[in-house]
Structure formats: structure tokens, C-alpha cells
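Chapter summary example.
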Amino acid sequence: MTKEQQALYKYTLSLGDNALIQSYRLSEWCSHAPILEEDLALTNFALDMTGRAQMLLTYAAQVDGNGKTDDDLAYRRKERDFYNHLIMELPNGDFAFTMARLLLTSAYEFYFFTELKHSDDKTLAGIAAKTVKEVKYHMAHATGWVLRLGDGTAESHNRIQDAVNELWQYTGELFETNSADALLRDKNIAVDLLSVKDAWNNYVSKVLSEATLSKPTDGYMHGGSNNGMHTEYLGHILSEMQYLQRAYPEATW
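The structure predicted for these 253 residues follows.
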């Protein structure tokens, strides 16, 4: 592959990995959410993300050009070959933690894919156009719950504030860039994350203020997923998610 193809492959792969791992985490709420309506909502969000992951990983496989499929990339890669952001792989915690994470990630995705719709890569632009419609609902749903929990009882307020405080140290990584990203950005393929960060920061700040929550100050930020470094939790996810394919590598449906 050329340098540009290598950059596009990893860029597309990271977007697919974000959707895949976040989908896995949300799917864990199936039959465990606090109310039936929420059980259905979170499961449907997980399905949205699974569909997005399939489109992106299929395209990544095409860019790679080695005959792999989306299934190969999902089920036959090792932990160090995944490039999802760390915030996606953290355990669900309580309901407040999941809603706080969904707010932070869906707001990021909404502004990110809104920009990606204008990419000169027509495949990425098409996937982005579909994704924006979905994450708009994810963001609205999370916003409603953060407002409800933040401005609710003392217990709900404390739980959502603790969740935001814990998650904030993982948000800096959302806006990290590298030389490969810069190469794609110069060709109007990748997104300018500075503009995304400004829009994301304004939206999240507004929601937290309305929810009577304190916005954490920027400090130490976790990172490393760009280089395949992850928390211990991704390994646990993959051991379960990839079990069937690894136990029966020649299995077909």
C-alpha cells in the first residue's frame, strides 16, 4: 500500500473499532437497563453502531486489499491491532456512567461525522451522512438523561457528576492527531479535529451547566490507542467477542 492508503486504512479502521467496541458495551445493557424503554433504546443504539462498524470495517478491508472481510477485522485481530479510543472500552458502570459516556462520545461523533460528510472520499462521506442521522438521536437521548439526573435527586446528581469527573480524563484522546491524519486532512479526506473540539466543548459545557453539573478542568489525559495501547478491559471484551471465531476458525454460517 502507498503511504496514503496505509493512512486511510488505519483511519477507517479506528472509526470502525470505535463503533464496534461501543456497540459491545451498550449491548451489555440488554435486559439489564432500569426500565423497559431504556432497555430497547440502548439495544437499538448498539445495533446502529454495529451497522456502522460493518460499513467501516468492510471499507477498511477493501483499502487493505488483502482479501480480508469485515468479519476478519472484527474477530481475528489481536488487542494491539485495535485503534478504538479508550473511553469506548471502559466498563459500563452504573446507568449514570453509561449516560455520561454516551453524551461525551455521541456529541463528539455528531460533530465529527457532520464534518466527515464533506470528505473527498465518497465512501467515508456516504457512511458519515448515514451516521449523523443516528448519532443525533443518541446525543439527544443522552442529553435528556444527563439533564434529568443532574437536576434530579441528590443521589442522581452525585452519580452523574462522579461519572463525568471519571470520564473527563479520557476525552483528550478524542482530539489527538498524528502525521497520518495530517496527510489525509491535507487531501480533504480526514476531519479537522480542532473545529470538532470547539463545537463539542461548547455543546457539552452547555449541557453540563443546564444539568447543574460542574465541568471538570483539563488535566492529565489518557492516550495510546493510536499506537494500539489499551486498558485491560479491551482484552476481556475480545476474549468473549472473538471466542467462536477463534475456537472454530473455519466455521461458516
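To summarize the output: The mean pLDDT is 96.
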